[in-house]
Structures are given as C-alpha cells and as structure tokens.
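Why this split exists: single-chain examples teach little about how molecules sit against one another. For that reason, every record in the complexes split bundles all components of an assembly together and asks for one structure covering all of them. Below is a record exactly as it appears in the raw files.
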Amino acid sequence: AQSVAQPEDQVNVAEGNPLTVKCTYSVSGNPYLFWYVQYPNRGLQFLLKYITGDNLVKGSYGFEAEFNKSQTSFHLKKPSALVSDSALYFCAVRDIRDSNYQLIWGAGTKLIIKP
Amino acid sequence: GAGVSQTPSNKVTEKGKYVELRCDPISGHTALYWYRQSLGQGPEFLIYFQGTGAADDSGLPNDRFFAVRPEGSVSTLKIQRTERGDSAVYLCASSSVGAAQGYEQYFGPGTRLTVT
C-alpha cells in the first residue's frame, strides 16, 4: 500500500538556524514527490516537487528537498529559517504508474520558527 | 493569472439540509480534485475529474456526496442531508495534464462547512 509518513507533529527552530522537516514514503513503483505549505486559514500552496533527475530540488521561498531513493525519504530543508516560515507543511507522493493522478498525503508537520 | 477559486468561503447549515460548494479551476486545467480537510490533518481525497467525467470517485464517503463538472471547467460538490460529521474545510485543486508539469496540483482557499 502507498503511504507517506511525517514522523514529527511539530518542529521548533530558532530564526536563522537551518531547518529540516522529514518525510518518508512507500510506493510500489517510482515516486513523484511533493511538498506543500499551508498558512493559517489559507489553502495549500505548492512548494516543490521531485519528478526525475537531480536528487536535490529547489523550490519557492528558499526551500529545497533531497530525494533519497535508498532511504525512501524526501526531507524538506532551508539553510536559514525565517519567522514567516511558520506554517503547516505537507508531504505528498504519487506512484508514477498511477494513471489517476491521486496524491497520497502525510499528516502534516507544524513548523514553528522562534525569533 | 487567476488561481483556483471556491465559493462560498464559509457555509453554516443545519443538520439535514442540502449544500452546494463551487470550484472554479485555473483556466485550461483539465484535472480537478475535491478534498476535505479536518483540523490538524492532511487532505482527504474525495473525487477526481478528468474533463467532464469523474475518473475516480472512490473517496466519496457515501451516497449523500455527489459532484459534477458538466462543461469540464467549474465543478460543484453537493452534499445531501448534511450531518455534523460533514463539518470540515472542503478543498478544490486543479492541475494541468502534461509531463512537463509533473502533475502538481494548485489549491483553492477552501470552503469551511459547519453543520449545526
């Protein structure tokens, strides 16, 4: 069965420090991987994706994520956190063989950046 | 360009009533999805449209839920005989079907449904 795990309900980081939000996945075939961010009372915003190619993917707002096939992980990172990065982050995966484009979503990680 | 829009932004209804939630996708996007999201949880898939047809409605929880997309653009999610457990934020997303895009979905702001 396909699944996504975000092992941390909440991550606390001091402003200016590097941040990592973890995501691991399980699919039968090769994955498409996505990160989305949700600010309070707002819809989900697309941050970045891994489709193929370079394992390090760069996205919006200075975020990046590294695809690690052997560890089935796709952790979200940022070198220097901003208070405005505080939000809810969701990882999602789709098996590339899946023709109906349905995403499997993690439960989300709340990121809190303290000044 | 305009993003995905959803109306109303908030809807309060009484138990047993009928509600309609509207989604207007990004122009040209052929794929449209409905999700619902409860507080502190990830989106729960409801239904996926490719053009006018429902390609996957496996996420609809029961026959009180129905969605249409008659002209392949705007979609309406319909809920009959609402129950308090239907209270959630209903999200709509659309995507462009093309290998270059990699199928990322663009979400609307959601409709917060409260059943009293």
